[in-house]
Amino acid sequence: MNKKKLASLLLVACMLVSLAACGSSSSGAATATPAASEDTGSTTGEVITLGTISPNTGSLAAYGAAVTTAVDLAVEEINAAGGINGSQVKVVNADDQFDPTECLNAFNSLVSQGIGLIVGSVTSGCTSAITDAANEEQVVLLTPSATADSITTEDDYVFRACYADSFQGAIAAAYAKQSGYTEVGVVYCASDTYSKGLYDSFNAACEKYGITVKAVESSASLDVQDYTNQFASMAKSGVPFVYAPYYYDVIGPYIVTQARAAGYKGIIMGADGYDTTPDYVVKGADLTAFNDVVYTNHYDPADTDPKVQSFVKAYEAKFGSTPNAISALAYDAVYMYKQAIEKAGTTDPKAVRDALADTSAVYSGVTGTFSLDDVGTPAKGASIISFTPDGDKLTTKLVDVVKELPAA
Amino acid sequence: MSTFIQTLIVGLRLGSIYALVALGYTMVYGIIRLINFAHGDFIMVGGYTMIFTIPVVLALGLPAWSSALFAILICAVVGMSTELVAYRPIRKRGTSMTALITAIAVSLLLENLAQAIPAIGPNPVVTSQIFSTGGFSISGVTMEWTTVLTIVISAVVMVVLYQFTQKTRLGRAMRCVSEDKEASILMGINVNNTILLTFAIGSGLSAVAALMYIAQYPKVYTTMGAMLGLKAFVAAVLGGIGIIPGAMLGGLIIGLVESFTTSYVSSSMADTFVFLILIVVLVIKPAGILGKNVGEKV
Q1: d(CA B288, CA A368)
Q2: How far B263 CA lies from chain A's nearest CA (Å)?
Q3: pTM of the model
Q4: For range A2-8, the mean pLDDT
Q5: Do the domain assignments include residue B210?
Q6: Staple partner for A232: which of A211, A221, A386, B6, CB 3.0–4.6 Å?
Q7: Is residue B232, in this structure, part of any structural domain at all?
Q8: CB-based contact A113:A92 (threshold 8 Å)
Q9: Helix (H/G/I), strand (E/B), else coil: A53
Q10: Contact between B142 and A226 using a beta-carbon 8 Å cutoff
């Protein structure tokens, strides 16, 4: 074959791949319609429809299941107790596949159904793709777990049930300081909003606490499967503590075992993305690698607080598994909506938005008792949790609960 | 020094997986001048076959890796069916362009079909430990048994395959068909069967690659073959597509470039360099490193 032919074949291949990508992403975008504020007026007797957006399929599907189950539980409880302002609640779920473009499609599809109150999405990467649209369409977006700082701003329609990364990253830095580490390393994903955001806030907090960030390595995407070189570099620089903000589907099968094999023996610390890692470890692998892996999370299912226990028991009874932090946050998000709608006396998105924007409202949920700040982010504490190998399974253990950031 | 050795090892194990996958691309291309884009997805088929058969072989008291035998079988069947159902009829009627588009269609079909099967679905699955854990240490660098086996097994497979094409009757038939289809028919070679055999071997190799891959990177998901396949294809083109030693060389180069970029340049630029190298090599030597510029026969 001559080179012209080969070159043209290659070109065609590239074009087809990019066309295929376009085809799948643009399909839903055209269905965008405004008109979300039709369902104004009184709510009594009517059905309140809440929209939810979550990654039900794709690499973070465990989070999708966490949201849909917890929202179902909360709505069932609310309906059994007489609904909100006498109206029963109904849920319409849309899948974002952990893909920002799909997330916008999911958002548009909910809006076109006239839904003005949405719980979602789960990840920062996806949620940041729909915040502008939410403000434009005047649709309230209450994300259970998108922690990136940029998600919420003042005077917008976006709120969240979780703390922000500037807090979460700083908690990790505070933990490093408290544990006596003065030199730390970071491995993060350069192309992911969540991972990059946590790196930035961790880095800033380290500066504040007088900790030296001695080594920084990154990965090009969340699809990278080999982190050996990154952690070999950590081992070489001699840091005893590495901050690695990734999701469970990378931590469980790849990072921890590869880091240990690369000779890195110190602490690996992560964030709420480590939640559900125990379901994603290799059966029969040496789980002692997970010793000294800690992460910040939103709640601890073993907390003896009656609110936590009643939620955990109800969830376990209904779904047969222990709810993770995303479930707890999604559950809280529904109750935040309930409180806001009751206060507003209507489901009109604008009125509900104003009710949520009231910084004096106190929400008492599974993940703590909190108020929202000016930008719509809760001021609440974080749990620090570690993994412990237990036979061929991995269990979690509460290390510490941090209510607020320590001073520098 | 230990960084260098570590980087070299990571490069070799990535490279040997790429090389195994690239062999499949190159064999099929060599014989029917078709870039089989579905080849990457055969790895996914192999991966899931192992996910489902590992509990079975463990229950029978066999080691986990023996499930690769099922994977080889299933992959060979899938590869041959693809040839019989999709490629052969299209080769008879269409041009090489239609065949290429069919290959991309088969790739997307396999990925989406897998997602639609309830037992597979779109969620990633983590496998069991395939080879024994642990390893040994040389000058401060830990060599895991899995890594050693990955490199050794792929080296053995490549040598055996090369000898097969050079020394056996079937191997010679494959090379004849690749050289000149019409003349092969005149020489009494059953061209269709030879092509089918090539698909069986190429797809079987993808199952071996799947074994190596999930032993090292124990996560299986429906689109796992996409990037892996693309990189292997780059490896095949880099080494000179259609040439078996070229695929091995290309695979190892890609793996080493990826690893050394991560260690010595920037960890987030690994893919950038891989594809940059492809462009550079194609500009300098369009037929690939080991390729010869032969004029098209008329």
Answers
A1: 62
A2: 6
A3: 0.81
A4: 57
A5: yes
A6: B6
A7: no
A8: yes
A9: strand
A10: no
